[in-house]
Design brief:
Helix content is about 5%, strand content about 40%. It is mainly β and about 550 residues long. The protein folds into three domains: about 1-130, Immunoglobulin-like (Sandwich), CATH 2.60.40; about 130-320, Immunoglobulin-like, CATH 2.60.40.420; about 335-535, Cupredoxins -  blue copper proteins (Immunoglobulin-like, Sandwich), CATH 2.60.40.420. The structure holds CU-O-CU linkage. CU-O-CU linkage binds near residues 59, 104, 106, 242 and 452.
Length: about 550
């Protein structure tokens, strides 16, 4: 195994998109940021130096961080932010994961431009469980605002309303040639006739689930969230923010140029969204050059309609592990969490006149009716590790305070979550099941739910209210997929299982940043086990303080 050293300089950089230049926060002046490549088993040491004017942290999305919770990155959860002028060295080892992950800022909305791919090749000396691809291309799907994204969310939180939707989707930072002033920079993905390419597709968009297709080419899905899956073939992918999908494509079409395209899967009722399409171009290297002056448009793939829940669901339920896996059977902790939006009365005073949700309220979101509030004086992990009282409470409820028709017409008395910094405590090694139940409070919405520090098995999902009597028959305990982010079906539920074998404090949240801003999160506190190998490591000396 090797140790890879990197410097990440977080800085403000002029970035031109959609005919305008903005001073954007980048890593090393690059947007998207640098791609990190390692082998399973390697160690990464990344020194992050903050030369920007905002606080920042970096999260290594999907890395299990076994015993190294101090390197996980969410601000005020596992560390205090790196202040302007400060620095912090993240150090962690990749243990058992292979495939595609990514890294991103985990402070406010900085991840809009602060993100990059993290590629994990097989352990040295091992090969892929599929034919070795000729080429590999990371494709980061993103969103672009013709504004400063931090201003966009600040304004929304100030007014209590919904933030502006983005002005473009992007592939590797580029909107593509269907947008103004963007055609020259459209991303080209090369392919040779007859060769197989591995595309590593990452949804790094802030607030949007996305459909993804390539004209005339089928994709064979071979991995997701840095785990291999039983291969299956599809025309369309759907990724929630946070999710990654590895696909093989073969150059088996007439040598030419074909569009690679992504656009929203926005099934939320009445919620505004960006309805544009971002493109890149799959280009056969042997394609004849277009005659001078002739503009030959590549073929566009047909993408599903924005509200095509059937296609989205068919895709997300196609995932299986490559073979039989060890799913925890006897459950120690059976949890039921509602996941959804809510409304709060605006505080009296100056702000009340600007509360822009319906009837003078402001938007909020919650799990089990608790809207998550980050601490500010210590991170949760420090408070736990050093026994500092008063930072959080351990009374996050195992079930919703009241039972109701979660996906039906919900009474307005349930629209007002309480705010709190509550964690759910797990004994080391306990076997955990969580039913994640979407709600129709305010409106039914998509929720890609991401758990830090763990991969989990998604053993079932469905529409409507989870029924503990009948829905257990749908549990797949043989070969369910291992994920770090599950897209809850719209007006539906998903059941996940994992073994709490990684001590620390781990946030679980909706990966739509607007929902985190509204409080759609909770955290698990996992105790140390016996002995050093079951305990959190000591805090690094340069851990930033609040
Ligand atoms: Cu990819 Cu908590 O995030």
């Amino acid at each position: 195994p090797r140790i890879h050293y990197h410097d990440f300089i977080v800085q403000s950089t002029p970035v031109k998109r959609l005919c305008n230049t903005h001073s954007s926060i980048t890593v090393n002046g690059q947007f998207p940021g640098p791609t990190l490549e390692v082998n399973n088993g390697d160690t990464l040491v990344v020194k992050v130096v903050n030369r920007a004017r905002y606080n920042v942290t970096i999260h290594w999305h999907g890395i299990r961080q076994i015993r190294t919770g101090w390197a996980d990155g969410p601000e005020f959860v596992t560390q205090c932010p790196i202040r302007p002028g400060g620095s912090y060295k993240y150090r962690f080892t990749v243990q058992g994961q292979e495939g595609t992950l990514w890294w991103h800022a985990h402070s406010s909305w900085l991840r809009a431009t602060v993100y990059g791919a993290l590629i994990i090749h097989p352990k040295e000396g091992n090969s892929y469980p599929f034919p070795k691809p000729k080429r590999q291309t990371p494709l980061l799907l993103g969103e672009w605002w013709d504004a400063n994204p931090i201003d966009v969310i600040r304004e929304a939180t100030r007014t209590g309303g919904a933030p502006n939707v983005s002005d473009a989707y992007t592939i590797n930072g580029q909107p593509g040639d269907l947008y103004n002033c963007s055609s020259k920079e459209t991303v080209i993905v090369p392919v040779d006739s007859g060769e197989t390419n591995l595309l590593r597709v990452i949804n790094s968009a802030l607030n949007q689930q996305l459909f993804f297709s390539i004209a005339n080419h089928k994709m064979t899905v071979v991995g997701a969230d840095a785990s291999y899956v039983k291969p299956f073939t599809t025309n369309t992918l759907m990724l929630g923010p946070g999710q990654t999908t590895d696909v093989l494509i073969t150059g088996d079409q007439i040598p030419a140029r074909y569009y690679i395209a992504a656009r929203a899967y926005a099934s939320a009722q009445n919620a505004p969204f960006d309805n544009t399409t971002t493109t890149a171009i799959l280009e056969y290297k042997s394609a004849p050059c277009p005659a001078k002056g002739a503009s030959i448009r590549p073929v566009l793939p047909s993408l599903p309609a924005f509200n095509d829940t059937a296609t989205a669901t068919a895709f997300s339920t196609s995932f299986r592990s490559p073979g039989k896996v060890e799913v925890p059977k006897e459950i120690d902790e059976s949890l039921f969490f509602t996941v959804g939006l809510g409304l709060n009365r605006c505080p009296s005073g100056a702000m009340s006149s600007t509360c822009q949700a319906p009837n003078g309220t402001r938007f909020t979101a919650s799990m089990n009716n608790v809207s998550f509030v980050l601490p500010s004086s210590f991170s949760l992990l420090e408070a736990h590790h050093q026994g500092i009282p008063g930072v959080f409470t351990t009374d996050f409820p195992a079930a919703p305070p009241v039972k109701f028709d979660y996906t039906g017409n919900v009474s307005s008395s349930l629209w007002q979550p309480t705010r709190g910094t509550k964690v759910y405590r797990l004994e080391y090694g306990s076997k955990v099941q969580v039913v994640l139940q979407g709600t129709s409070i305010v409106t039914a919405e998509n929720h890609p739910i991401h758990l830090h520090g763990y991969d989990f098995y998604v053993i079932a999902e469905g529409f409507g209210n989870f029924n503990p009597e009948t829905d257990t028959s749908k549990f797949n305990l043989d070969d369910p997929p291992l994920r770090n982010t599950v897209s809850l079906p719209l007006k539906g539920w998903a059941v996940i299982r994992f073994v709490a074998d990684n001590p620390g404090v781990w946030i679980m949240h909706c990966h739509l940043d607007v929902h985190i801003s509204w409080g759609l999160a909770m955290a698990f506190l996992v105790d140390n086990g016996v002995g050093e190998l079951e305990s959190l490591e000591h805090a690094p000396e340069d851990l930033p303080l609040c």
